[in-house]
Design goal:
heterotrimer; A: 333 residues; 13 helices; C: 257 residues; alpha/beta; 9 helices; globular
């Protein structure tokens, strides 16, 4: 079996802007195609409502969706290589648990959206920081980091449980539950600045070092023998990945399965070479979350939590990938 | 901790058992609570408790608040959280307040002889207490009708004046609703004010199945989010734009103030925000948008806000009378100002 | 080119030395076998020679310079580590695996270009695997994988390759293919340090050999001189019979009673 060439992957690159525009056209409030374009390029020529909807509601939301999808997917791909484990998800180092705790804390004290994002982001970094401290103290072999991640996640989950217990069941508790299910319902320009900035920075980083990520899949001694400062490189990858995930979770809540499944689909499509895997993961992740979020905000009058949709899609997708894996391995033997 | 309580516990238990044996079958009352269970209350009930946050207010409305030994009050987790009026209203708040999961031993230690419980959440706990010999009334209150029923059955369980009070309140409730309906009898459907009732966050809105929608209907409005089901629903701004309500109402609890929406640039395209018709329900004692007796005033307040020119009832007058009649509580000038401020 | 260890001592855990005062050297064209039992410190020795681990005392010299003073990328272009074959997690092609050997030639932000692929092709030619370039690494045989890893070392540009038990998972035919390639490359000037626990291979393929026993080099020299029953007993803890031929020892057999 020979691996596929990446030529068809560039089809995605061309398709992505088209899909983005398509997402702007879809919504519960019917807006014609020409009105949409006029809202984008000649905003004064449409009514207040349409302008507000396109420019202030749908556009920032679509941008947030593609950023989050790209971030989760690229970090998942990088971490799967870094930990040499295809079952790794972007949440392995406790980022999500820390972020969930931070958000729940903010919701408990009714801190407002900015406070929510700041708290979520801060605790996400704290969680990973704790894991890295464990790594520093006990040696940052991949296993140590994974165990550290499990411990830190468990700690923050327990604290989260405590918050849920004392939260007011009429207001804070449902708000926390809803946040934990993930969603982009209250995205607006004022709140996605950090996400956009960090996404730009992080994606550029992963794109320029993408080939070198291959070396992370080798053993530590092999990589060092090849001249790579493996500890530093690994730490940098973890740091940038964490920034991407933390900023994504701060805006969108816990959105699972994207970081796990999208890299697998990308790998099945273009092979494991990160030179192709990284850009394809970015594109595929962006498109997936954009599509699911469009459904989340359009299918019903009330919002469907995004995390539920990614789960409903992610689980069967993962299962199909697993079947394919079994079949391919079976044929090759 | 437990060993310290034990003597107290033992004594209380003895007292309870002795009392009920002495007074015994002499004055037994049988009621059917809202989960369909038949509950027998023998003897007079001198010490009452409620861990049902809404039900506690029933005791006040029925005039038996002096018999309270423990109460959960909806939305009040600690004395620090209670409003100033609330502390005047119930000076014993600190000693009475219980919050969170019910504590069996605490209630027995206080000698509760009748207990009100939320039938949908604490059924198991209710069974425990019943086995310990304490009559428990379980409530399922979601609508105005079930609230009135709940009052009636509580009144009957307590006997004496309470029964009459319950009937009086029910009559008053009907009077208010009928007056409002009469005032608005000429209103055409298309002229009804379209109302969005939000919750503790601007995009978290009430569903058609919630009490808030019933209040809006009673006040002559139309709830734009009536198509939603269940409890609070999360929506996005696009859906709100699609509904485009005339008026937005904010509950008396939660962090949102009208100016949060009025000053938000993303909300300007909505009619209610453009017209400045965003109001927060006032909170004096209990939250008026929940099925407590105060919700009577909630209807009056809402109707006055939606149809200021058509409503004949005077909120200040109704409020003063309500609190005096049912809660034995005299409102101050400030209290009334709080209630009628838009 | 010359790679030398001078009296190096190394311990993973303080107090438990794995290498004690080890000295050895290879030059261009040498094929040196380091023999020893499992756990005798062979892999650690290779790691130190490759500059991957720094010994507690002593030094490793690459062409006269202390190896930890040489920039890592520079060092990687001269010394290559060829690990034991293993099951990789992802299914890279043979070409992609060998391409990773070009890492020291590529900066942090660079990606392989035509020149790098040309180096890959040259390396694959040198080991005779050119035809398998597009095949998935996990689907070729163990012997072919070993050759691919050698090719990766060559793609680095390394003149000296350190091989960790290359025969460990190979059948006789593939072992022979691997060592024949090694011999051919050595005659072109490449040097090899090969760890092994099979003295027979040393007798067949090595120019020089050394026994690593309890972290020390005991015996060093031509294989036919140092492969004796006493040394074998000391190294492996069991009795061996040495089969001799006209020129000296030809093979060893454990004494089965």
């Amino acid at each position: 079996m020979t691996t596929k060439r990446g030529r068809t992957a560039w089809v995605l690159a061309a398709l992505a802007p088209a899909l983005f525009l398509l997402a702007l056209l879809i919504g519960r409030y019917g807006i014609r195609i020409d009105e949409t374009f006029r809202a984008l390029f000649a905003p004064e020529s449409v009514s207040d409502v349409i302008r507000a909807l396109i420019l202030r509601v749908r556009l920032p939301r679509a941008l947030a969706a593609v950023c989050i999808g790209a971030n989760l997917a690229v970090t998942g791909a990088a971490f799967q290589g870094l930990f040499r484990n295809p079952l790794v998800d972007s949440r392995i180092l406790g980022v999500s648990s820390g972020a969930a705790f931070g958000a729940a804390l903010a919701l408990l004290v009714s801190a407002g959206t900015i406070g929510l994002q700041a708290s979520s982001f801060a605790f996400a970094l704290l969680a990973v920081g704790l894991v890295c401290l464990i790594g520093l103290r006990f040696g940052s072999a991949a296993l140590i980091l994974v165990v550290g991640g499990i411990l830190v996640s468990a700690l923050f989950n327990a604290l989260l449980g405590l918050i849920k217990y004392v939260a007011d069941p009429l207001s804070s508790l449902p708000a926390i539950t809803y946040w934990l299910l993930g969603g982009l319902s209250d995205v607006r320009w004022a709140t996605i600045g950090p996400l956009l900035a960090l996404t730009g920075f992080g994606l550029v980083f992963f794109l320029v070092v993408r080939w070198r990520l291959n070396v992370l899949t080798l053993s530590e001694s092999e990589a060092t023998a090849l001249g790579v400062r493996i500890r530093g490189f690994r730490t940098t990858v973890i740091l940038v990945g964490t920034l991407l995930i933390a900023s994504s979770v701060a805006v969108g809540g816990i959105i699972g399965w994207v970081g796990l499944v999208v890299p697998h689909v990308a790998r099945a499509w273009v092979g494991p070479d990160h030179g192709r895997l990284i850009p394809v993961s970015i594109g595929l992740g962006a498109v997936t979350v954009l599509a699911l979020d469009t459904i989340a905000r359009t299918a019903l009058p009330s919002e469907i939590p995004l995390g539920i949709l990614t789960g409903l899609v992610g689980v069967p997708a993962f299962f199909l990938l697993f079947l394919r894996f079994l079949r391919v391995r079976g044929e090759a033997r | 901790m437990r060993s310290r309580r034990f003597p107290e516990l033992a004594v209380s238990l003895c007292l309870v058992l002795a009392a009920s044996w002495l007074i015994g079958a002499a004055e037994a009352v049988t009621v059917v609570d809202q989960t369909g269970r038949t509950v027998t209350i023998s003897g007079s009930v001198e010490r009452i408790a409620s861990i049902y946050g809404l039900g506690t207010y029933f005791f006040y409305a029925l005039g038996v608040q002096d018999r309270l030994v423990a109460g959960g009050y909806v939305g009040v987790k600690s004395v620090a959280q209670a409003s100033e009026a609330m502390l005047r209203f119930e000076p014993r708040l600190e000693e009475l307040l219980v919050f969170g999961d019910p504590n069996v031993e605490e209630l027995i230690a206080r000698g509760a002889q009748l207990l009100l419980v939320d039938g949908s959440r604490h059924a198991g706990f209710a069974e425990q207490m019943t086995e310990l010999g304490i009559p428990v009334l379980q409530y399922l209150v979601e609508t105005g009708d079930s609230m009135k029923e709940a009052l009636r059955l509580t009144g009957r369980a307590l006997g004496g004046n309470a029964t009459a009070r319950a009937e009086a309140f029910i009559a008053d409730h009907e009077r208010v609703l009928e007056t409002v309906a009469a005032d608005l009898s000429n209103l055409q459907d298309e002229d009804r004010v379209r109302v969005l009732f939000v919750g503790t966050s601007p995009l978290r809105v009430s569903s058609g199945e919630m009490y808030q929608t019933e209040l809006i209907d009673a006040a002559g409005g139309t709830s734009v989010s009536a198509e939603l089901f269940g409890y609070w629903n999360d929506v996005n701004l696009e859906q709100v734009l699609l509904w485009n309500p005339d008026v937005i109402l904010i509950p008396p609890y939660g962090p949102i103030q009208p100016r949060d929406l009025l000053e938000d640039p993303d909300w300007q395209a909505i009619r209610a925000v453009r017209d400045g018709r965003v109001y927060r329900m006032p909170r004096l004692i209990a939250p008026m948008d929940t099925p407590v007796p105060e919700s009577l005033l909630g209807v009056v307040w809402m109707a006055s806000v939606l149809y200021p020119d058509l409503i004949s009832l005077d909120l200040a007058e109704e409020a003063a009378r309500f609190y005096a009649t049912y809660y034995d509580f005299a409102l101050t000038e400030d209290d009334i100002a709080l209630l009628i401020a838009p | 080119m010359r790679l030398a260890a001078e009296a190096i001592t190394f311990a993973y855990v303080p107090g438990r030395d794995v290498l004690r005062d080890v000295t050895l050297a290879v030059g261009a064209g040498d094929v040196m076998f380091v023999l020893g039992a499992n756990g005798s410190g062979k892999t650690t020795l290779l790691d130190c020679l490759a500059g991957v681990r720094i010994p507690r005392s002593g030094r490793v010299l690459l062409d006269g310079d202390s190896i930890d003073r040489i920039p890592t990328a520079e060092r990687a272009k001269r010394v290559g580590l060829v690990p034991q074959i293993h099951e990789p997690v992802f299914d890279y092609t043979v070409g992609e695996v060998v391409l990773m050997g070009r890492t020291p030639h590529l900066g942090l932000f660079a990606r392989p270009g035509r020149r790098d692929w040309e180096a890959v092709d040259r390396a694959l030619d040198a080991v005779g695997l050119r035809a398998l370039r597009g095949h998935v690494y996990t689907e070729i045989s163990g012997g072919e994988r070993q050759l691919a890893l050698i090719a990766r070392g060559l793609a680095q540009g390394a003149a000296c390759l350190l091989m960790d038990e290359p025969a460990a998972h190979l059948d006789p035919r593939h072992q022979h293919a691997a060592f024949a390639t090694v011999a051919r490359l050595a005659s072109d000037g490449f040097s090899f340090v090969i760890t092994s626990h099979q003295p027979n291979n040393a007798l067949l393929y090595a120019d020089r050999a050394a026994f690593l026993i309890d972290g020390r080099i005991e015996q060093e020299g031509a294989p036919i001189e140092i492969v004796t029953e006493e040394t074998l007993r000391s190294a492996y803890g069991i009795e061996f019979d040495v089969i001799t031929g006209e020129t000296g020892p030809r093979a060893i057999l454990p004494r089965v009673t």
